[in-house]
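Supplementary notes for students who missed Thursday's class. We covered one full example, reproduced here. Read the sequence, then the structure, then the short commentary at the end.
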Amino acid sequence: MAHLGDRSILDDPTQFPESWSFTSQSSKLYPTAWCPKLDVFVLVTRIAERNHLVLRSFRETSVWDHEFDASTPHPEISCVRWSPDSLAIVVAHGGARITFHSLHDGALLKSIPLAVPEKNVEEERLVSNLWWVETKIPKAPTAFKDVFNRTEIPGTAHSVLRLLPRIEHVLPDLSALKAGVGFQRPPMQAATRVVPPEKDPLMIPSSSSDLFGASIAKAINAADLALNLLGHTGRREDYTFWFQEVDRSLLIVGDTWGYLHFFLDGFYPLGYIHLGTQCSPVSVYAPPLLPFNVVTEPAPDLHLFAIATLETSGGLGTLTNSRAASLKLPLLHQQITRDVVRASTTIKELLVFAASVLHEMEEAWMGTESREGARGLGAKWLRHLENILAAHGDATSGDALLDLTVLLLTGKGPPSIREFFSSGGRLSERALSHWETTMGRTLKTLQEFAERKLVPTLERLVVVLEQVQGWTQKYKLFHLREADIVQAVKQVLKAIEFSEWLSKEAENELHRYFEFAKWFKSESIRANDGSGNELRAISFDPLEALEYLENGLTSSTLDRWFTGPIPPVSPSDVIAQPFDSVKTVIATARSFLNKKSADAQSPRASKASSPEPSSREASGSLDVSVTENDLDQAEAERTAVLAAMTDRNLVSLLEDIIEKCQGILITASGAVVRSAEVNTDPLLEGRNASESRIRFRNTGNDGRSIITHKERIIETAEGVERYIALRHKQEDGIHVVYLLKTTHPNWDLDQTPSAVIAHVMQCRTRDIHFELLDYDFFDDFSMVMLLRAQGAAYLTHFDHTPAKIPYQPIEGMLPATHRETWVLQLSEAVQNGQIPAHDVPRGRTRRLEMCSEGSGYLAVNGAQRRQVACILDERGHGQVFDMMLEDQEEEIET
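Structure (token representation):
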């Protein structure tokens, strides 16, 4: 190898004058690390066997450092990708799940497990790549303009929800409870009851959070704010983005088993598609309103390459199809899909809100491991009384509850009772006030939450479910079963009845407790002022106080709404009355009102003097006699029947509703991939011996492919132009880059290109051969390379278009079914002198103080207003460059 000689050719200090260095040990830089719209990038750092996601700014140190949870199922992070609006980062953890993180602080926005197909392979599944593309949907042309500018179709469920008042949000919500957000509440411990995934409302498929569409008021807290920053929700001023925005996004996840997982708008799971063979997708292009095109790189599996018949002196290698497989998703752009997605999102929002309301009610009443509930306060003071009685050794005071009952009814009790009510027994005025405040606030919370939050939420859920029920015949591809939806609606209606019953029962319990508290206060005053057993005028209702003493102090009927099995029947089924005609109902009401009026005018009149009809509708008369005793007796009978219903568990009932809705909506979410049309023929090409002429190894000693791929697709008025850069490390160690430009009219990437031109570039300058550490397309016109020679690394930036460097037509070499075949053909053409090999084009070059040994990684962002590059070596030394030219800066400022 020749000496470097004049390094001024390679190192121009005037190029990339602005740069910033940093150090980040045990870090990894991904090609997609740069934010598309901001001057920030992410690194994945390994610290103490834990992965960290670090956001760094262009000119400063790290902005934030997010440590991944220890329960992450896979220690390796496969890849990262930014959302189209640059407000979120999606991270692939091996092949198990993907997580979404906020741009602002790295907080976890959502975690989605990837479906695990049943596949009998020993190789571990990993996510090979992520793509988050925007799909543009033109607005449907209309002959008449909507003068009302309506964003909802009149008569739909969401148009009804839009007219209803929004339900006040519960603070804190489920996402904020774990952090103890709001009102300085102590942090919560782990839940005592583990909710299985099938009963978790968070597992219901949904798009980004849309509280407004569910008629729920927005919560003012950081967790909910972060959720609404993801997707298009962060840019809209109101919440009508579903019909006002024309841009949509699709997150595509490819794994090493040959599966593609689709997520509409990043969140909503559409299911997965198998590409027909075990392979790793490497690039995806989504033209507007055209099939998705996928270029894949098969995994090194024996059966696969036996079909591809790739033979080398060093063994088997990898093949990458040159003609794209196509996937047609007919339902993706149709409005029916958006309708189902929005209904599923609204149902999830309502169920999550209902679960948070019920969770707050259960905690307030039943308590948690770290906090005592209101129901346990009475039992605590009763145990304290029992200890006092035991300490006095009063033989007549064996039952504390009995002694309190005697004291309530007779006003007399043993001396130890007076000690309990005195300040010496710790039942001070402050303790009584705290007990009364806690019980009053808790029971009021149960009453108001059930009446003002839970019932309206479930009523809105019925509206949406009934609309989904109407789609069962229209949207058959979504496999909506009417029987399942009817059963879910029935359970929701049952939950509404039990919620209303809970509100009424909490109100009665509150009334009884206040009467009991009045008696407790009066006894405390008697014990503290020395009155002893002197009787005083009562200021409370002794019957209500006795009722609470017997049925509320140690146990309460309210417990039944949070414990026990699922209620088999609803209250209306138990106390259902026979159906009466409208005529009979009106007659009953008139008879009752007439009797009331007659009693008011003649209070001394005898009951026997008023005539009574022999039947309810005798001689067509509407005068039907109904007495108050009849109504009271009927009410007493209904109360007795309801009291016999011991199964009232509203928590289990809501979990059953969640399980039913989850089954309905998960099945419906797979309609898009069920209707997909997949053409995987290009992936299976090359099984004949025509491709077996390869003479070189394309895998190294470590099993990795020596041929790497970079691709850039440029849309034009006629179709697309695709630039492919194939790096091949030859057996003699020389790095060669094959640049190919293919032209595809009408976006037909699954067809043979109409024209192919190539440029062969050897990594050398003046007979100085370089090692190509990394490379990538910077924008539509230029490339960036990271080179190294004799321990010195260089960053070079040059124009790769045919206007700057010479390309040669290679139509005679077509068709080639794999990119590796193109490498073989071009290599042979260079050896035969048919195509010349060129040096690295002259461009802007800068010597680096890093990457002198080991590997080097490159990440670039060539957006119009960004144009930056980042380099990181294996020792953790990094450098960021401002790639923008002075004339470009002046143009942007202008």
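Commentary. The longest strand covers residues 719-729. The two ends are 48 Å apart (CA to CA). If anything here is unclear, bring it to office hours.
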